[in-house]
Amino acid sequence: MGDNMTDQSQSDILERLKQAEESLARIEERAAEAEKRAKMAEQRAKVAMQQAKETEQKAMRRTAQAGILSDDGRSA
């Protein structure tokens, strides 16, 4: 009878191990997907920052041009 209990315990342990491995595989898969999404978001953030810099530079040029025009207008 002792052997039967040991076999059942081993069977339970193996089943739990299998479930744990499957759970780990799902977690790793979700982590990989999250990492891909994070990298894509980082790339979009870099593009947005570049666009913001370009917009700021355009605004600064326009401000400088407007200042030159207003200076010309005052001196004329």
Write the layout of secondary structure elements.
Elements lengths: L1 H74 L1
Question: Could you describe the 3D structure shown?
Answer:
By secondary structure, the chain is mostly helical. 97% of the residues lie in helices and 0% in strands. The chain contains one helix and no strands. The protein has one helix at residues 2-75. The N and C termini lie far apart (111 Å). The mean pLDDT is 89.
Count of helix runs: 1
Shape: rod-shaped
Question: Separation of termini?
Answer: 111 Å
From the alpha carbons, calculate the radius of gyration and give it in angstroms: 33 Å
- Main sheet characteristics: none
Unreliable residue stretches: none
Task: Spell the H/E element sequence.
Answer: H
Helix content: over 70%
Write down the overall mean pLDDT. 89
Query: Count the strands?
Result: 0
Beta strand %: under 5%
Q: Report the structural category.
A: mainly alpha
Can you describe this structure in just a few lines?
This protein has 76 residues and is mostly helical. The protein contains one helix and no strands. The model has no long low-confidence stretch (mean pLDDT 89).
